[in-house]
Amino acid sequence: MRHYLVCLHFLLLLSVTSNLPCAFPEAYADDDIDIQLPATDDGLPGAGPIRRYDWFRGLWTERRSAWAKRVQQDQNSVVFLGDSITQGWGDDLHGAFPDMKVANRGISGDTTRGMLIRLKGDVLDLNPAGVVMLMGTNDLEEKAEPQTIANNVKLIIAELKKHNPQMPIVLCEVFPSSAAMNRPADRIKEINKLCAAVVRGDSQITVLETWALFANDMGDAKVEEMPDLLHPNEIGYRKWAGALRPVLATLGFIETQSDDFQPEPGFVSLFNGKDLTGWGYRVTPEKSRAGALKWMASDSSVIWPFVDTPVNFDGKSVTPEGRYLAKNGRLVVTTPPEGRKIQQLYTIQDFSGNFTLKLEFRASPNADSGVFIRDPQLQCRDFPLAGPYKDLKNFKSGDWNELVVVVKDGTAHCTCNGEVIEAAMKVPATGPIGLEGDKGQMEYRRVRIRQQ
User: Fold this and answer.
1) Does 319 lie in the same domain as 210?
2) Higher pLDDT, 217 or 30
């Protein structure tokens, strides 16, 4: 049955990927021997399964031979390394990132050990500007243990970092599938947990929460996005592109033009789009410290650094630790390499009386942030996944959403894309506007206020 499913997966891929030839090459020259799949595991790096089915051998050699002729052409690309999910996105990723030079290095059926073996020729030799990784699902079908998979991912990342210690790496969580596909949810979640531990604290790597993006309530893939419970359809690929877009923009690969937005009459910008002028860190209140200490004591994965002395970031484009940065009109709260890290950036100025605050925000999958209105926090997140407002009809995942806060006589009326999320949130008489960082990446732009 397993061999039947493998062949079925390949045939399905042939139906959606136009750049796969109909037949495998008959022969290769002796100098192409390093492109072909090694006959045995002897002396190979890593551990775990390497597929050697006849169809896989042919596909491996065919795709790698074609790529070998493109090494110079694909120099300095953003390389997508993966298996059939990556291959099925096509050479140009269906045009998802038209201004970014990409190289698709996915091979249907490949495992993490296979990717490790071909890493130099297919990825490192391109001197990539960045690497996007999605891998591990085929290892599960071959009965590999999650720890073995995570160890191979660790070896791949080590080689990437050795090649270029500044090159950004985006590690996508393994997508959900199904126990019927020999990929049960608990095993996939364990892989993602172990891989997150491998890269925890490494600022060169951004972990993208793509499991939650695609999982249903049971932790499996959704048929409407992955009809065979493994490979995304066009809807699924659009969702993956939307999840990647904020991170790729922050890394400087896309959306490199400045935002030329001008506030409406009566509104004043709180963020100039170029640097963090007007923003800073405020001293952490005692009540927050007490709660933070209790939280960190119960959950070692949470980090909450305290601020003892106020800091002003006028003229600075990034905070010292890199958590907040100004880039092309966006105020970005970056994904913390620690996983969860609570930080708060505030306006230097306090605001009293009645006012209307407007801004737009964009969230990576499952991102958690918030907007402080003088003191209380209005949750600002990837609402469909992170809540609390999961049923918004107008929310645009992976895209920009507008937040409008109208403060009048001590209460705040808050909407997201015109839908009410808080009808009457109590706020104090005066205080700053703040942006929290927790987990995932949040971006804010067009932050402006009109005081009455």
Assistant:
1) no
2) 217
